[in-house]
Amino acid sequence: MQAFLAFVMRTRLGAIGVMALGVVVPLLFWVSGGVLALITLRRGLAEAAIVLAGATAVLVPIYAGLLGAPMAVLQPLALVWLPVMALAQILRATVSLAATLQIGTLLAAAGVLAFYALHGDPAAFWEGTLQAIADALTGGQPGPEWNQAVSRLAPRLTGLWATNLLAVAVLCLLLGRWWQAVLYNQGGFRSEFHGLRFAPWFGALGLLAALAAGFAPAGLIADLGVVIAAAFLLQALAVAHALAAARNWHGGWLVGFYLILPLLLRPIALLGLADTFVDFRARFAPSA
To answer: Which of 63, 117, 140, 271 keeps 20 to 30 A from 4, CA to CA?
Structure first.
């Protein structure tokens, strides 16, 4: 791990190559995002912008040759790299993981507002997009079950889409922060993540978001609620890791927690929200 990270940090060409390769190879986009976050955190926005421009320049002829669409490079640029670089710069400036995630969540919520302003009726936009995908896959015969699924899913896709983009950016940021600790501050990421706790004002906003996500009909309010409430999943994970470490629980406990996580997203997010006001780590961690 350290040899790989040292190679990335040694030269710009190494970082550019790894970033470009991470996009070309399926399911390795998180590596390119983590590298960009690491460079931004360690060397600043200007150096990160140079590496970003270099990786983009490398990908343009690759996409032109493989896909016949050089402008496809805009997809990783807009959906992964720029959000990751922005969050990393915020973290570098604030030196606060909680503040960075709060700002990132608010920016994602602003993106939802912008999406509504741009499309007017996002549900119709998503229905058209999903229909185009179905036509391409089935030759225009998706079937009534598909149409029913689209009608139920389309009104909520804007919030889910924004939440997914935020989740990818945050995961890449955390990866880069961990790599930074591996190279320059052993154990720093562990203590920083274990101490993650949002501000009370953000907790109050999260409570309103949880109510909106749970009770409001599909639409703008519900989409904003999903984006903001989702941030508290990360706080719940921080609580779980901190308590497991403080009480010396077996690692299997965390494995089980992650296995049930997809099944209990809302209850676990509510636990993270409650921690903002209750502070489970102070109450249940053993005293020194």
So the answer is: 63
The upper half-sphere exposure of residue 277, i.e. CA atoms within 13 Å in the direction of its Cβ, equals: 11
Lookup: tokens for 276: 């903002």
Question: How many residues comprise the chain?
Answer: 288
Residue whose structure tokens are 């970003």: 52
Q: Check whether 45 has a pLDDT greater than 90.
A: yes
pLDDT at 215: 79
More confident position, 277 or 139: 277
Structure-model confidence comparison of residues 288 and 193, the more confident one: 193
Per-residue pLDDT averaged across 157-183, rounded?
95
Q: What is the distance between the alpha carbons of residues 127 and 204, in angstroms, rounded to a whole number?
A: 34
Task: List CB contacts of 223: < 8 A, sequence separation 6 or more.
Answer: 112, 122, 156, 158, 159, 162
More confident residue, 46 or 286: 46
Within 13 Å and on the Cβ side, how many CA atoms surround 133?
9
CB 183 within 8 A of CB 9: yes
CA atoms of 42 and 182, how far apart (whole Å): 12
pLDDT in tens, 81-128: 999 999 999 999 999 999 999 999 999 999 999 999 998 889 888 888
